[in-house]
Amino acid sequence: MSSKTVRPGLKSDQQPEKSLDLRALRRTPGFMLRLAQLKFFEGFYEEFAALGLTPATYAIFAVIRDNPGVPPSSLASLLRLRLPNLIKILNELESSGFIKRNRSKADRRAVELMLTPKGAKLIAEGARLTEPYNEKMLAPLSAAEQRTLLELLNRLLPL
């Protein structure tokens, strides 16, 4: 896995030099969701750096673990990744021994993705960090608010 990725821009605990009026943006769901995504990604890079996982690779591992044999095209579509970009990541994961690509028995032209034992071990280690990480990131919300947030996001983003 690659070393820790550095992301440009302000960290979530840094503030611009002077206070800015963001009332209009705070009423914009897309803007607020994007800032929340950035905050969660910053936290993810810190918490999962020792494993070498990024948000994208964690998602790839989780989908393959939960859907053995998933084709790359389905994975790309689900994760909203361009297929050529996903293929680059899959090449790295395969050369590192985390995944393997098999030809489908039903259609020899099709490729199926599987975790290797090494990949299964890595996603298991990542999964152990997930609950404490989510608890930390969602700490400002009550348990009921956390459930409501997930319910609303799942309604907005039916997968």
From TrEMBL:
It comes from Bradyrhizobium japonicum. It comes from the Bacteria. InterPro entries: HTH_MarR-typ, MarR/SlyA-like, Tscrpt_reg_MarR-type_CS, WH-like_DNA-bd_sf, WH_DNA-bd_sf. PANTHER family: HTH-TYPE TRANSCRIPTIONAL REPRESSOR YETL (PTHR33164:SF43), TRANSCRIPTIONAL REGULATOR, MARR FAMILY (PTHR33164). Pfam families: MarR (PF01047). SMART domains: HTH_MARR. One of its GO terms (molecular function) is DNA-binding transcription factor activity. Gene3D superfamilies: Winged helix-like DNA-binding domain superfamily/Winged helix DNA-binding domain. Keywords: DNA-binding, Transcription, Transcription regulation. This is MarR family transcriptional regulator. GO terms for biological process: response to stress.
